[in-house]
Specification:
heterodimer, A: 6-stranded mixed sheet, B: 7-stranded mixed sheet, about 55% strand, globular
């Protein structure tokens, strides 16, 4: 069965600094990988997804993530964060056509410091 | 705005009661998913329907049930409510199977 680990529950970072949110997954088969963002008092919004092809995936709001099969990781990065990026970020995995369930990590809260 | 609507936004009820949460998927989406988000359990997949049929089941309690109607809207029924059922309940929809899921704004359930 697949699982997702987000190693950091909270990440503080100064405005305009780069950030990396870490995500590791485990699965015995090929996976689809996702990053979702949840702004305060809102639902989840898809940031980006990896289904196949290029391992570097670009998403909305300047975020990107790199799929690394050998390290079973899908870390999320942004070169320069803004105060509006304050939110909770969820990494998720699905086994795709084998299984429609999406398993979410516990989330990483991104705090932008002025 | 994802195009997925959920009602009500907030619900306050007492232990032992029964409530129904409603979800309308995006136009054209056939799959509906239900999730529970709580502080201690995080975001948990409950159940998925595809074109009216149950497709996948996650950590859904026996006290909970769901269905998807012919017009594709879905309802999640929670009965014999306990304090621990207090959570945010999200609905998501997708075009087909294994497609990108779009989330609604959620229903916040408080059980007193």
């Amino acid at each position: 069965a697949q699982s997702v680990t987000q190693l950091d529950s909270q990440v503080p970072v100064f405005e305009e600094a780069p950030v990396e949110l870490r995500c590791n997954y485990s699965s015995s088969v090929s996976v689809y990988l996702f990053w979702y963002v949840q702004y305060p008092n809102q639902g989840l919004q898809l940031l980006l997804k990896y289904l196949s092809g290029s391992t570097l995936v670009k998403g909305i709001n300047g975020f990107e993530a790199e799929f690394n099969k050998s390290q079973t990781s899908f870390h999320l990065r942004k070169p320069s964060v803004h105060i509006s990026d304050t939110a909770e970020y969820f990494c998720a995995v699905s086994e795709g056509v084998r299984d429609d369930k999406i398993i979410f990590g516990k989330g990483t809260r991104l705090h932008i410091l002025p | 705005d994802s195009g997925v609507t959920q009602t009500p936004k907030h619900l306050i009820t007492a232990t032992g009661q029964r409530v129904t949460l409603r979800c309308s998927p995006r136009s054209g989406d056939l799959s509906v998913y239900w999730y529970q988000q709580s502080l201690d359990q995080g975001l948990q997949f409950l159940i998925q329907y595809y074109n009216g049929e149950e497709r996948a089941k996650g950590n859904i309690l026996e006290r909970f049930s769901a269905q998807q109607f012919p017009d594709l809207h879905s309802e999640l029924n929670l009965s014999s409510l306990e304090l621990g059922d207090s959570a945010l309940y999200f609905c998501a929809s997708s075009v087909g199977l294994s497609d990108t899921q779009y989330f609604g704004p959620g229903t916040r359930l408080t059980v007193l």
